[in-house]
Design a protein that fits this description.
The longest helix is centred in the last third of the chain and has 35 residues. The protein has 15 helices and twelve strands. By secondary structure, it is an alpha/beta fold. The protein is 44% helix and 13% strand. It has a seven-stranded mixed sheet, sandwiched between helices. It is globular and about 80 Å long. The structure holds pyridoxal-5'-phosphate.
């Protein structure tokens, strides 16, 4: 009979796993993961299954009685191995999701076992120090000055929010944390970002109470980079109208095409006009490491705050984002409250004071270990290779008759499929519409096909296929295989669409 554990008796809780069993289960699971990693290239990147079919595999009632962990772990591995999209596959180039470093998977196991709560130093002495060192190293990789600091968060969105909130607290000329954005006599606030900025900016403006209308989307040039002349004009217009400019966001690698804003010019303007300079380097920040990636990236070091994503170009398994500020006191200024129920270690860092989270997992371990495994040199090589492969793809696409290359920045190459006979007519309205539709359906077909996963971008209103290589497993052979796959599916789809149009 269960119930109150007998005094002095040994309690065996339903979740306990005895050491011998734990060993057996763990070895078995690690064996299965090793098999998965060894077989990735031979598997489809993903399977073409509708949501209902996947849902049906797990839709069952919450069990009243528990089950044996052996069977549960076996089944979980089967379900995941057979019904997942593998972003660690050498032919995955969609969105901006990296191939996860295997050491990160092991690190997560270790972090989960120790279960450090990296909210306060006393709760997590070694984990806190590992996070602190990891942040220092990331700051060095980005060229931030010594003394900058920050924290790890769930991803790029959160990291950008942290920079945004730091700017809001630091640059609003009243006590905005206490009195809010609608304080008596407070001027309206404005923030500036390129039209290509990721949607985090809307969420940040919304959640921080500024409202999305406070975001001034500055137009981009033909290379998708912010027009700094128009930025300056917009700031001047706002000031003349009694609006208070708060911060300007420079994007270091836009999500659609990898465009890097003119960061040195933005930094200079921000300094002149007293705006906070935030860099969204969620995708491209770490390319600052690769010589020749884009010289504008050197100006990341001038930012007041930077968001980067270790779960992108440091290849950490999800989740790991990172917010850094030139002066960490600004994070305390934006987030710190000191409740009576925490007894703090005054000499150590208490990360809960530096960001929105309270309890915090040990995300730093996987990042720290990967940085140590590869070293600066290893990362420089991996990121440089990713960029070189994207350029090789751009060239191959340019040399392939029915493919039209569009952009190539950092490790993102965009292009589209244009049937031979339509190429001369591509500028005509009706053909342009058809090409958009053809490429949209082609993208869908490629994503379901499982041979090579790319995603899409809309560039100057045109629908494009988009390959983003943040993948240390992709080889030149993988890249060389892509044009043929796209053309094969493109021809087939074009034939089908024309046949269907002729039939109606
Ligand atoms: C990916 C990305 C984000 C969002 O990051 P998450 O990790 O998905 O939250 C923001 N900005 C840019 C430029 C990105 O590439």
């Amino acid at each position: 009979m269960s119930g109150t554990p007998a005094a002095g008796g040994r309690r065996v809780a339903p979740l306990e796993i005895e050491p011998e069993s734990f060993r057996r289960l763990g070895y078995r699971l690690v064996d299965r993961i090793a098999e998965l990693l060894a077989s990735l290239a031979d598997r489809p990147v993903c399977r073409d299954e509708p949501p209902a079919a996947v849902a049906a595999l797990v839709d069952r009632p919450l069990p009243e009685r528990g089950g044996a962990p052996e069977a549960l772990l076996e089944e979980a591995a089967d379900l995941l191995f057979d019904h997942s999209l593998f972003n660690g596959h050498p032919r995955f180039g969609g969105y901006i999701t990296s191939s996860p470093a295997p050491i990160g998977a092991l690190a997560d196991l270790l972090a989960g076992a120790v279960n450090a709560n990296v909210a306060g130093w006393r709760l997590s002495p070694m984990a806190t120090e590992i996070e602190r060192v990891t942040l220092r190293w990331i700051g060095e990789l980005l060229g931030l000055p010594a003394g900058s600091g920050g924290l790890l968060v769930s991803g790029g969105n959160q990291a950008n929010f942290v920079g945004f909130w730091a700017a809001r607290a630091a640059r609003a000329p009243w006590e905005i944390r206490r009195d809010g954005v609608a304080a008596a006599g407070a001027p309206p606030l404005a923030v500036y970002a390129s039209a290509e900025t990721h949607t985090w900016i809307q969420k940040a403006a919304d959640l921080s109470g500024l409202g999305t209308e406070a975001v001034r989307f500055v137009p981009v040039d033909r290379r998708q980079r912010m027009r700094v002349d128009l930025l300056a004009r917009r700031i001047d217009d706002d000031v003349a109208a009694g609006v208070r400019p708060l911060l300007v966001v420079g994007t270091a690698g836009s999500v659609a095409t990898g465009a890097v804003d003119p960061l040195p010019e933005i930094a200079r303007l921000a300094r002149e006009r007293g705006l906070w300079f935030h860099v969204d380097g969620a995708y491209g920040g770490f390319a600052a490491l690769a010589p020749g990636a884009d010289p504008a990236l050197a100006a990341i070091g001038e930012a007041d705050s930077v968001a980067v994503d270790p779960h992108k170009w440091l290849y950490a398994p999800l989740e790991a984002g990172c917010a850094l500020v030139r002066d960490p006191a600004h994070l305390l200024g934006a987030f710190s409250y000191r409740p009576s129920y925490y007894q703090l270690e005054e000499e150590g860092i208490n990360f809960f004071e530096y960001g929105p989270q309270n309890s915090r997992g040990f995300r730093a371990l996987k990042v720290w270990l990967a940085l140590r495994q590869a070293g600066r040199e290893g990362y420089r090589r991996m990121i440089g290779d990713d960029i070189a492969l994207a350029r090789a793809l751009f060239e191959r696409v340019g040399a392939t008759r029915e493919l039209e290359p569009l952009t190539c920045n950092l490790s993102i190459t965009t292009f589209r499929y244009v049937p031979d006979d339509l190429a001369p007519l591509a500028a005509e309205e009706e053909t342009a519409r058809y090409l958009d539709r053809l490429n949209e359906e082609l993208n869908e077909r490629l994503e379901r096909g499982g041979e090579w996963f790319v995603s899409n971008a809309v560039i100057d209103g045109r629908y494009a296929l988009r390959c983003c290589i943040v993948n240390f497993r992709t080889s030149l052979a993988d890249v060389e295989a892509l044009p043929e796959i796209v053309v094969r599916h493109g021809r087939e789809l074009d034939r089908e669409l024309r046949r269907a149009a002729a039939a109606t």
